[in-house]
Protein 1
Amino acid sequence: MSIAHRVIPREYRDSVALMQLSAALTKLPGVKQASAVMGTDNNLSLLRQAGMDIGEVAVGPSDLLIVVQGDDGALDRTLDEAQERLSAQAQNVDAGGPQQIAPRSIAMALAEHTDANLALVSTPGEYATAEALKALNLGLNVMLFSNNVSVPDEAMLKRVARDKDLIVMGPDCGTAIINGMPLAFANIVKRGPVGAVAASGTGLQEVTVLVDRLGCGISQAIGTGGHDLSVEVGGISMLTGLKYLTDDPTTQVITLISKPPAKQIAAKILAQARSCGKPVVVVFLGADAQSLTNGNIYGARTLEDAARAAVALTRGRAPQAVSEDVSVTSTILNLAPGQKYIRGLFSGGTFCFQATMLLQETIAIHSNASVGRSLPLTNMWKSEGHTVVDLGDAMFTRGRPHPMIDYRLRTERIVQEASDPETAVLLLDVVLGFGSNADPAAELVPALKAAREIAESNGRAFISVGHICGTHRDPQGLVAQAEALTAAGMILADNNAQAVRLARNIVAQAGR
Amino acid sequence: MLMHMTLMHDALRSVARYQFTAGTIGSRVPRIERCGRVGAVFKRACMVLLDGGGVVALLGPDVGHVAHAVRLVVDEPIDCRIRIGTPVRIWRGGIVFGADVVVTLSSARIWTSAVRLGMCASNSGAFNAMALTRNVLLDLAPQSSSEFLAAVLPIAPPVTVLGVRVSVALPRLAVAARGHDANRALLLVHGLIGLGPGLTPAGDDFVIGWLAGLTLLAQSPAQQEFLAAMRTGVEALSHATTPVSRQHLADACALMFSERLSEVCVAIASGASRPALQSSLAAQLAVGATSGADAAAGLIFALFDCGWGSSVSSHGSQDSGRASCP
């Protein structure tokens, strides 16, 4: 492992550009770590502290310094790549002269695309309300990707939208598929007769993916944002989405997905669903599925149940209960005596929620997803007993992209869990599709290998169970991802619910 | 004089293909003829490095002001008109970029920071606003990647080399500030100057926020003497950072803090309500990648961790136990 550096005199870039450059270089083959900083004494000392000592070099605070640590053969190539990337940025800036100015407002964009009927708003939360309002006033539906929009603002926006016969998807709406177009975090699925409205991003992804895998397809997938079914907001977007799908001739079966809504809101939604004239599958995770079933409404317990029921209904069949039996072969039960706990590390909030919901039926579970009887975590950074963690929680995403994009936190935590002699099974999710990490297996496999080495060198078994939320058409490639992960020893279940049951059964059988 | 400026204005307009109009001009922008070149250009900002040292910035109308900047009236992408390396001439009536672009200054108003020495020292209403400020920052901090904010609040254990260094340095700096030990404090500040990536390294932003916080609270002779030593010392140490950041530090040492940071300080000093503080802090945290958050960390560190808050509590606040951390 060697270190090389390059000094670019009097080159000024903002910290965002330099942090992005450092992150991109670190991902290049043969590179262990890379850093692009201004050449101040303190940054040089910081580099030394990080193991990238470049000795005495002629560099000053006005100079940009790029330092790379890695394989000998990779260093020059990486430094060249860094300079090329900087040049490309500079060319963008240096083009000079009159240029076509990109639209700087929704009104300007609408003037260029007069047939547009939807605006995707992804500004910081404090500006999002104003932008969404502008879009609504221009007659546009809104997908509000931004989070940190207050609930009163959300309610106001949705009331305005309803009065104009429009819909606001969000805020904090991460997933939608409109007219076959995946928006934000979404998978490439077949078009077909199942329509969905969801107050849960990864819940919507899981259902649309499973519908696709069952050979069926999606007409529209409408996100509402997680607060839509609160009393304050009143389920306005879910009711509007339900109406759209009711009126949509291509939608034969409607699926509604959410964590348990406020009681009166649930009643309102179920009342509208009952009168819509189409079969409606309802999965309110954590609610009693049986009590939801009534007339044209089919209650589902898990996301898998919901997808299977929706597909069965499009084929004119009655939904069948999904078998909860998951067999565990004896070959994976060589756990050491102290290995007794499940450690779930999730990037999808709804996967964590569903895992907590299913596991707490039989075991005491610590989680940062507050579900039913789940126990809080004393320290989110350290597992205790059976633990499942939503790594998309704001506590973990400070200064980092979402864990569906940036796997670093999770890969570090995988190794941390493997070092704990009480860890029996690691439970993971892998989300493919637009917006997600370009190659999750490439991120996870080294961590899984390192974790296995740690466990086995201490006389323990290493078991990882997971599922992939993705389709064959997703850019990352379902098959390639599955092959790489299984080659690294991960046991892959078909979906989140099955992975959770498998992990639970492994621990239960090992404990006997 | 007026005629001279008008003629200059007309002359500049006649040679330029593009004209920007300045709405405000920072109080530390040189008013004598200077030359330089463009060092960095962004969509809504441009940094001119002056020959012989110093920086003048050109800012879009929505960008928070700084004392060494000229702020434009109309929002137009600056990077479409101005290139890195372009020679620049500053006149009393305008700034000329190469042969193509002129910024007219003749109708610009002067902008200056509203922060004044000891603003919070005799103001009991400010004390509760300080506590609110910390609470609001705790709400907003998870959206920031500032290692300094994470260390000061503290909201998470350090995970990077920078984070570890910060978490070690700050408690020592707090002790030095409490004891008014200027030499020790400057030694520690030296370790922060130029620390972090980018045009304004995070360590510099933190120091600027810290100076703002100390300015708000400085009341006793010992505090004022310590602050004076910091202002002199930091300016002397600023050679260790980037030219752009050096200018920001020089402004701070002259108690000319940025508009966003000044708004936070004024909100605290006026005992503003939580929504008002939230609004000003959100704007401060939106500055740069982490610059705003790093400066906010410095501010809150000065208000709570350096033991100077007791000067506020002695003036009648009923909430005195919360101003300085143990």
Protein 2
Amino acid sequence: MSGETILEVDDLHTHFFLRRGVVKAVDGVSFALRRGEVLGLVGESGCGKSLTALSIMRLLPRGGARTIRGQVRLNGRDILPLSPREMRHIRGPMISMILQDPQTSLNPVFTVGNQLREAISRRIGMRGSGVIREAMEALRHVDIAAPEQRISQYPHQMSGGMKQRVVGAIAISGHPQVLIADEPTTALDVTVQLQYLKLLKRLQRETGMAILFITHDFGVVARMCDRVAVMYAGRIVECGPVQDVFTKPSHPYTRALIASVPTMTGPIGRLRTIEGQPPSLMDPPLGCRFAARCPQADQDCRDAYPATTHVGAEHTVACRKAGQP
Amino acid sequence: MIDDALLRVSGVRKHYPVTKGVLFAKPVGTVKAVDGVSFTITAGRTLGLVGESGSGKTTTARLVLNLAEPTDGEILLQGQPIHGLTGQARRQYRALVQAVFQDPWASLNPRMTVGRTIAEALIVTAWGSRTAIAGRVQELLEQVGLRGEQAGQYPHEFSGGQRQRIALAGALASRPKLIVLDEPVSALDVSIRAQMMNLLKDIQAREDVAYLLVAHDLATVRHMTDQTAVMYLGKIVEYAPTASLFRSFHHPYTKALFSAVLPPQPDRRGEEIVLTGEVPSPLNPPPGCAFHTRCPFVMPVCARREPELRQVAPGHLSACHLDHAA
């Protein structure tokens, strides 16, 4: 699936400007999302993965977050300088988002039909029975049985999995070319998670949209993604096809992270851990941000941030020791 | 025969009446949150309770913690019934059975130093003098991998993983025999999760404390427990030594749970059973086997008669008509 690039994030810097200092939460993130692919963005809490998504959507939280440098090119056009009004025409038909908690994504005082119709009528520019038909079709499309009844229900009358389906239906109602899914299954039960992932995969195949899939779960990455980018302390440290990154993880952080996941097979013993904590992003180290926790780090690693190098045709890593045992 | 069980739960039910109206509330139904659950926990060992939301695993944990009275059935700790305790006996029970909950951000009082939070259990049981308590707090902090001098700090100065360690230190203060762990690692990051799991195992080995681990993640259960009970809609559907369960599981629901686990390796897709729909409401559980509405192997008998837990391998119980058909 090596199609053309549809979304390109280039040297993105989004910082929080707080009274006590500047938190460099996203600090030089670059990646490309290709047409029709699923790219995983994986990392632990606080690594900047969600803020990267919100920067792309131009939906930064209030309270001092600002994108201060970089470009986000959608179909070759930088969307960061666009006015809020212009952005409203981009969100929906071009790029859309699913958040973790369906409870907070839906408005509790409107029926799901109401919320779905609003999204649909904005796209096709009409109201009335045509929109209702389309809304019903959209619900059927996300495997909701008996849509004629569900359409007049309120969010609280639905289960978590069903609400997240409705959120999905709204997100893709504008036929976006790019969908950002930020931990869409974290709040769901495991058997429901599997249903939802299968649904997303089917929708992606049918519509040909590209998905930026944000998660902390390597199992979900293995199941859903074509390529994966690993984030640590505000930067991408490794990126490549899922197969390569899982079988030949080249960054010590990726290696340690994969090794620390408890497994369903193999010996049961002590789990591998990563000692220490991620650095403060208010005052990140000059060199490699993982150096303080890395068993292979030397003085060079601490002195300067490592360049990103190729370890495979499409597999890149930001580590001086890459390729060394 | 000597009863070697630390905790014995037999035939426990917890039903909540559902009413309509405010002033003259009429009962309109019953939520059978826990509906006839039995298991035992051996001293120093770990039992895992696995299930999805609505399975009753948290209600079961609350019953064991004596935070709720069972509608029916009995829970014995070291042979003594735990419900209906008052005064001194109740306080003693609280000292013997402790808990660590899922959310490390909600379980510590933000206005108390962590030392004070840990000391709380010691103070209410008049454990010792002020200096003795301070010494014990330091010892507990060190036991969970923190530094003794951190006792004077407030919760906001700690990360999620450290807070969970502090909650564990508090639970250990009264030297309990049993700690109920309700999703103790699911709010933690992957790398921190492994540290916490290792710590829990170390502490068990050192203190000989038993755990009741409530979890939804099967890999966590595999690494942490000796016995596993799989719950669905208020009932245990499969109950087995963990090693036996992970070697061969019997109940179709357990099968579905296992196939929903996504291994962190590409191209490692086993047989996949994707269930349709979600867990039905415990207000109106389906008749017969509660799982029959979603079961891929459903037979006519399943809707009529509820299957009993029966032995399918040594010490391995499963409640499914399929196992007894042959």
